[in-house]
Amino acid sequence: GNGNSTGFGVATLSWMPPQFNTDNTSLDDLAGYNIYYGTDVNDMTTVIKLENPGLTSYVIENLPVGNRYYFAMTAYNGANIESQLSVVVSKEFGLSVLKIEMFRIE
Questions:
Q1: Strands 89-91 and 46-50, how do they pair?
Q2: pLDDT digits over 40-93, tens only?
Q3: Is residue 98 within 8 Å of 40, Cβ to Cβ?
Q4: Which neighbouring-strand residues pair with 7?
Q5: Rg of the chain's alpha carbons, rounded to an integer?
Q6: What is the 3-state secondary structure (H, E, C) of the chain?
Q7: What is the Cα–Cα distance from 88 to 90, expressed in whole angstroms?
Q8: Could you report the per-residue pLDDT of 74-89, keeping only the tens digit for each?
Q9: Of 2, 58, 71, 97, which is most buried by a Cβ count within 10 Å?
Q10: Residues 6+ positions from 3 with CB-CB distance below 8 Å
Q11: Taken in order 44, 47, 52, 58, is the CA torsion positive or negative?
């Protein structure tokens, strides 16, 4: 082997914070984000809760190489109401930063 099939990779997610609710009213109580990911697009069971609404990127490390990972995000507000899941993005290592297409809170 060439040594590239073992080890760990990194995925960098970046996004634009949501500005509106689904009814087009201004979102003024954004509280944070949840990142969902996994190796099965229908079973993204690992969740990272980001309790900082000011974040626009996050690095996920120690992902075993050799898998394709799928990532999606939600945002949640001060009442802990969670948005619909964002568009799913995927990564096999060697690709660039993942841009999350933004979502809105219900």
A1: unpaired
A2: 889 999 999 999 999 999 999 888 888 888 888 989 999 998 888 887 777 664
A3: no
A4: none
A5: 15
A6: CCCCCCCEEEEEEEECCCCEECCCCECCCEEEEEEEEECCCCCCCEEEEECCCCCCEEEEEEEECCCCEEEEEEEEECCCCECCCCCCEEECECECCEEECCCCEC
A7: 7
A8: 899 999 988 888 877 7
A9: 71
A10: none
A11: negative
Structure tokens belonging to residue 87: 């568009």
The strand pair at 8-15 and 57-64 is best described as antiparallel
Above 90 in pLDDT, residue 32? yes
The model carries a pTM of 0.78
- Rounded Cα distance between 20 and 96, Å, is 28
- The whole-angstrom separation of Cα 87 and Cα 61 is 21
Count of residues in the chain: 106
CB-CB contact of 50 with 73 (8 Å)? no
Two tokens, residue 101 = 């297409």
- Per-residue tokens: 31: 């509280």
